Amino acid sequence: MPVMEYIDAIRLAMKEEMERDEDVFVLGEDVGVKGGVFTTTKGLQEQFGEERVIDTPLAESAIAGVAIGAAMVGMKPIAEMQYSDFMLPATNQIISEAAKIRYRSNNDWNCPLVVRAPIGGGIFGGLYHSQCAESIFFGTPGLKIVAPYSAYDAKGLLKAAVRDPDPVLFFEHKKCYKLIKEDVPEDDYIVPIGKANVIREGSDITVIGYSLPLHFAMQAAEELENEQGISAHILDLRTLQPLDRDAIIESTRKTGKVLIIHEDNKTGGVGAEVAAIISEECLFELDAPIQRLCGPDVPAMPISPPMEKFFMLNKDKVKEAMLQLALY
Amino acid sequence: MSSNKQLIDVVMPQLAESLVSATIGKWLKKPGDAVEQYEPICEVITDKVNAEIPSTLDGVMGELLAEEGQEIQVGSIICRIETTVDAPAAGSAAIASSSTGTTAVDHGNAAGISQDVASRSRYSPAVQTLAAEHGLDLRTIQGTGLGGRITRKDVLTYLENGGSAGHPTSQAIAPSAPQAAPVSQPVSQAQAAPAVLNQAANEPVRHSGLHLTETPRIPTIEVEGGDRSEYFIDVTPIRNTIATRMRQSVSEIPHGWMMIEVDVTNLVQLRNKIKNEFKQKEGVNLTYLAFLMKAVVSAIKDYPIMNSVWGVDKIIVKRDINISLAVGTEDSVLTPVIKKADQKNIAGLAREIEELATKVRAGKLKLDDMQGGTFTINNTGSFGSILTQPIINYPQAAILTFESIVKRPVVINDMLAVRSMANLCLSLDHRILDGVICGRFMQRVKDNMESYSLDTQVY
Known about the structure:
The complex is a heterodimer.
Chain A: E1 3-5, H1 6-20, E2 24-28, H2 44-48, E3 53-55, H3 60-72, E4 76-80, H4 91-98, H5 101-104, E5 114-119, H6 134-138, E6 144-146, H7 151-163, E7 168-173, H8 176-179, E8 181-183, E9 197-200, E10 205-209, H9 213-228, E11 232-236, E12 239-241, H10 245-255, E13 258-265, H11 270-281, E14 291-295, H12 305-311, H13 315-327
Parallel strand pairs in A: 2-3, 2-4, 4-5, 5-7, 6-7, 10-11, 10-13, 13-14
Antiparallel strand pairs in A: 1-8, 6-12, 9-11
Chain B: E1 5-11, E2 21-27, E3 34-35, E4 40-45, E5 50-54, E6 59-64, E7 71-73, E8 77-84, H1 87-104, H2 125-134, H3 152-160, H4 189-202, H5 237-252, E9 255-263, H6 265-282, H7 288-302, E10 308-310, E11 315-317, E12 323-328, E13 333-334, E14 337-338, H8 346-362, E15 375-378, E16 398-412, E17 415-429, H9 435-450
Parallel strand pairs in B: 12-15, 15-16
Antiparallel strand pairs in B: 1-8, 2-4, 2-7, 3-6, 4-5, 6-8, 9-17, 10-11, 12-13, 12-14, 16-17
Helix pairs in contact in B: 7-8, 7-9
């Protein structure tokens, strides 16, 4: 099994899906000749031509609108938003059109669309290149949202998203692109949308999260196990919409102590909904208050390096929160 | 290994903010080599900087855990250094650093769990559910959680042991510490945690719950991390560097000191006349400091001995005049360097001063910005001082401070006049420099400062 980076796994998923199905095509800003600002789509235009890897104008609303129209007549577009921060002009298209078309047309139409967008900070990108957009779309029924943490999941979830008959938002963390390197099979596999994944078994505390912060949680769990004998159970949500309620409940029951982590703002974030599910379903299994460790409620990621460091989660912050919960 | 030898792990330091890993370039020490503190042990290559990793202590190089060319995660162990420290002291030092480590991240965004210390009789839903299912009397179970709270795991362990309160088996977090129950003084979580862990290991475990109603003994906790009357602040790497360098300078260099006063009235007028136009044209502020720097650099050219280093059997005079500029931040002071300052005009110096100050405050200084300084200037007037006794920026020969510009009555030709005056202070390495040469140097600086006039060109 080849070792590849998170970004390579995403590229491979697109390549395989385009080889498998002629209806799949990619569109976005600079995805063609340049191969994407992060090189996510590098080489695709050479292989599949200009008609299947389309450089668009700088107009996210148009990218989403064109993709939605194509999807409704049977194509399988993968629309790239250069940064999830730039997605906002396309929100009307995504929320009011893509998410609702099946419902509005009483099942006559559907919209097999994938929107890929890099989220998150840690790259000194400042406020327009570091936001987490998931909470903007999170409360919209009709959308599916995935946010992989591993390279394996990134490939499998993107392939599942392409094959899904409804719109899927694929949030990839830009800090993971080069940070995560692991074995990724070259065969055709998918990771089912809507299924969370236990990435570490444990008995003292449960950590629930998605995307980059889980990387910190895994390192922290390793250290806590060695230093203090604390055994952490870690659940990767993988899909944010719809949330895997059963997996959340099961992981909570395992230890009775839950820490939820994500980089998006605490208020109104995915963690709030996870916490609500736990308090609805697991009151009598709880052994400690549900904890959340998230980005602070400030308007945007600061550009100053010390401030960005303050904003971002890291291994030490996650470890401290896990330790406090374990000691409770 | 004998009892007073200890192997200390050396980890890959965070060389730059965004760095996740770095590559070992070359090992400069082999296993068995003697290593002194601050001596480079290996070269590392990153996409940002190439640097040497200094040893953190004196000792003998142990095994190398990373190969040349290997990419290592920040924080991973690269080698071990064997050192002769007596074991108990090193042990407690390690504990101290780990406990300050945990408090350091306290400013994170975690919602703090309420620090109720009298949690012995407050049961979580999970504990109550289990107690009801198994018909347990919770008063007979020992709590190991915060403030003696009975955790879900305590109940499960109790059940595993067939319902006896004693002999907790392989309890993961803390075996059992009944005496730690209602602690009457508020102890912060971070402090209480290691204490409970330590104590639990030593205390004999009770075999029944009979005595639990006794007034609990308050454990004597050696709290790491201060008390009501004081608190501790982590020594950051930069603080540590400042401390080391300052101590080295003061202990090695015999400091001499002198001060002169300069009439800068003409300079004030000159600057007021051109500063707005300059700002518009150049986009940077035309500061007094730039004029002073020019005056100092010209004087150094006349007295090159000011630009030297003590070499024990010789004095090394530097040909390039590279001015270190002391720039303060809220919690540190750095001395970035203006290279070849003698080849720059006042406008060029003003621009470079502003660029370096901005870099310092943004935390964006590169290694290169910090190296090669031969003489230091500190603009102490900027924080209101009128007289300072600066510590020399080791290993340079002298440091000059520019104090506040103050309007004062001055006698000129037996008449009183109001003039803008400023003090210049100089600390000198008395091994290299004496009063006469420094007096001449300072006089030259003074002449240069006082000869600025409305006709002076800044370009």
